[in-house]
Specification:
Elements: E1 3-7, E2 16-20, E3 26-27, H1 32-43, E4 46-47, E5 50-56, E6 62-67, E7 71-72, H2 76-84, E8 87-89, E9 97-99, E10 110-112
Parallel strand pairs: 5-8
Antiparallel strand pairs: 1-2, 2-3, 4-7, 5-6, 6-10, 9-10
The protein binds iron/sulfur cluster (SF4).
Residues 8, 10-11, 13-15, 29-31, 33-34 line the site of iron/sulfur cluster.
Length: 121
């Protein structure tokens, strides 16, 4: 029964979890979110991807972006390559969907996390 120790990152309390890698039994969680996190982290780890994309006509050259939900950890590199191909133009509002179903993952969009007005003419 291989055990894995990890720290729950779902809230600042940071419970130390022990997860049985075979049964996915989680111990050390103070609340149910830790159980969910521990099981997912061992069986199918996911992360929210954050980065920036090029933006034209704004006060800065880059617009911060993130995925609207976590994506499989194994797709992070593919996601960074896909983001490098994206460029947008101002104006943009925080929360605007820039790429729907990012990487073909249904329901997960790439969204802007900062608003920019159109600069200049
Ligand atoms: S198990 Fe619950 S209380 Fe503990 S860190 Fe995770 S979310 Fe926070």
């Amino acid at each position: 029964m291989p055990l894995r120790e990890l720290v729950c990152i779902r809230c600042p309390r940071g419970c130390l979890l022990t997860v049985d890698e075979e049964t996915l039994e989680v111990k050390g969680n103070f609340c149910p979110r830790g159980k969910d996190y521990g099981m997912k982290e061992v069986s199918a780890p996911e992360r929210i991807l954050t980065s920036t994309v090029a933006i034209k006509g704004a006060s800065l050259p880059l617009c911060p972006v993130k995925t609207s939900a976590p994506i499989p950890k194994g797709k992070l590199f593919e996601g960074m390559k896909a983001i490098a191909e994206v460029s947008i133009a101002a104006p943009v509002a925080a929360g605007d969907v820039l790429v729907k179903d990012f990487l073909g993952i249904e329901g997960v969009d790439l969204v802007a996390t900062r608003s920019f007005k159109k600069e200049g003419n």
